[in-house]
């Protein structure tokens, strides 16, 4: 079973929905759900296209959750890692998207349609990039072997109760509900469905085997899988009686699985893999992002000071200084943030996009727009593949009232990253300031399509149509509206099918 995300801090009505689901399924949870025969992987009734549609509907709600991390640095890093691993997955048939959740528990999970969620706690507790990659590879293996799709369409009553409730919540959202609690509830229900799938031991072993091969072929250290197993098993033992011991009850870690992976490492050999700078800096950043109380933040800050003072390597010290700079930036103490960031920059070997993005943000907050523009132009030259740098550059252009340049650059960026929603949102802002209401609404329609909010996308297109008298432009917009409405009806039909 995937490393399960626990829904946290949901609104009251979200908890009510979840509680009713738990009551419905409680009498059935003792029965092992399992999976059909592990022959040729088959999605039974759920084709990859339908699975992706269901996943998109779930993710539309997930992005509304307070726990969803929208940080461009984090999600690009995770998705790049996932897609690098997925290149070596057999018969995947789904694009992989990996995202992060603000949750200190050590968990991860797979949703329908190739979506992989990683709790910040799993990232921050990993001892190396290869350890983190081993978990992502395992989750991708569940997707590639169609474990998720097959689990959803199995006949056990407990799973169908959960799927029906999830489909009902998603149908409500598809009708245009913008209620944050409903979105959080739907995403929490998706996690509950994930738990109810109950992958068999055989399915877990298969995910280990397929994930191991992905890890090896992608150039990671396969010992990372062994080390992560050991780390997770130790965590389970330490928390046997605690409420946080969710992992051990939902993901059967066995000595047999550990032994199987150890045997593969011994028989096939291994090679070392050096942690990327992004891994090191983002792990520090997530430590701060997951601290949800003042006391937790103070504890993290004390740890970073201790790390900076006692670091055995320059990279470890640089990561601590970066974390302290990020903390100071959050507190709006920009001189202190700049001081710590300068210390993080001291060793030129550790030049990284994450440092440059923070430097730009500090200059922006200090209203030093000339410096921010200079820094962002330099960063763009150094890190042309960084989405966070691209977004920071556009932000600087807009604050400098250079919307024409922003629109020009955004056009190039959208060609490069057509699936990055935030680009369209920024494009709409610049078009609006330039007085082009039609293009602004068309850009927002693209934004809402990408995040799965189809009813809102239709509204934006209708507004764009009403703002123009150009016959050809109206005809093109009418075509888009028709296509979106057809897609909406298809999604409703799919969800009604699961609801029944």
TrEMBL record:
InterPro entries: Mito/Outer_Membr_Metalloprot (IPR051156), Peptidase_M48 (IPR001915), TPR-like_helical_dom_sf (IPR011990). Its EC number is 3.4.24.-. This is M48 family metalloprotease. Residues 1-30 form the signal peptide. Its cofactor is Zn(2+). Residues 240-270 are annotated as: Disordered. Pfam families: Peptidase_M48, TPR_19. One of its GO terms (molecular function) is metallopeptidase activity. The keyword Transit peptide does not apply. Keywords: Hydrolase, Metal-binding, Metalloprotease, Protease, Signal, Zinc. PANTHER family: METALLOENDOPEPTIDASE OMA1 (PTHR22726), METALLOENDOPEPTIDASE OMA1, MITOCHONDRIAL (PTHR22726:SF1).
């Amino acid at each position: 079973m995937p490393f399960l995300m626990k829904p946290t801090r949901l609104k009251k009505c979200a908890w009510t929905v979840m509680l009713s689901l738990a009551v419905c399924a409680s009498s059935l949870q003792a029965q092992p759900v399992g999976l059909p025969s592990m022959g040729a992987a088959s999605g039974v009734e759920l084709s990859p296209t339908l699975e992706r549609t269901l996943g998109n509907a779930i993710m539309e709600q997930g992005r509304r959750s307070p726990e969803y991390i929208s940080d461009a640095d984090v999600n690009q890093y995770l998705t790049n890692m996932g897609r690098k691993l997925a290149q070596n997955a057999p018969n995947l048939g789904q694009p992989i998207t990996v995202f992060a959740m603000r949750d200190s528990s050590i968990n991860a999970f797979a949703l329908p349609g190739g979506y992989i969620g990683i709790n910040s706690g799993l990232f921050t507790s990993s001892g190396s990039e290869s350890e983190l990659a081993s978990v992502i590879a395992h989750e991708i293996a569940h997707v590639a072997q169609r474990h998720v799709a097959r689990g959803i369409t199995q006949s056990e009553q407990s799973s169908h109760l959960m799927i029906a409730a999830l489909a009902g919540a998603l149908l409500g959202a598809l009708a245009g509900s913008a209620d944050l609690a409903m979105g959080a509830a739907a995403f929490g229900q998706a996690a509950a469905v994930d738990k109810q799938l109950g992958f068999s031991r055989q399915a877990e072993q298969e995910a280990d085997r397929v994930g191991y091969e992905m890890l090896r072929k992608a150039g990671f250290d396969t010992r990372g899988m062994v080390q992560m197993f050991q780390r997770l098993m130790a965590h389970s033992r330490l928390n046997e009686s605690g409420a946080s011991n969710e992992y051990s009850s939902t993901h059967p870690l066995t000595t047999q699985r550990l032994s199987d992976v150890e045997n593969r490492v011994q028989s096939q050999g291994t090679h070392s893999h050096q942690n990327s700078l992004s891994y090191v800096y983002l792990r520090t950043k997530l430590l701060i992002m997951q601290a949800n109380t003042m006391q937790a933040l103070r504890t993290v800050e004390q740890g970073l000071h201790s790390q900076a003072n006692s670091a055995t390597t320059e990279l470890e010290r640089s990561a601590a200084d970066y974390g302290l700079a990020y903390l100071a930036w959050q507190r709006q103490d920009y001189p202190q943030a700049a001081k710590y960031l300068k210390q993080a920059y001291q060793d030129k070997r550790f030049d990284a996009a994450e440092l440059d993005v923070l430097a730009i943000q500090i200059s922006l907050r200090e209203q030093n727009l000339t410096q921010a523009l200079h820094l962002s132009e330099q960063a763009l030259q150094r890190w042309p593949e960084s989405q966070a740098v691209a977004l920071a550059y556009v932000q600087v252009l807009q604050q400098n009232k250079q919307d024409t340049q922003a629109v020009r650059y955004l056009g190039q960026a959208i060609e490069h990253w057509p699936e990055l929603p935030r680009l369209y949102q920024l494009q709409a802002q610049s078009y609006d300031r330039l007085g082009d209401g039609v293009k602004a609404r068309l850009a927002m329609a693209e934004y809402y399509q990408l995040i799965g909010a189809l009813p809102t996308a239709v509204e934006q297109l209708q507004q764009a149509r009403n703002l123009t008298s150009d016959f050809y432009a109206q005809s093109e917009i009418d075509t888009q509206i028709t296509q979106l409405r057809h897609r909406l009806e298809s999604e409703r039909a799919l969800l009604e099918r699961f609801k029944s």
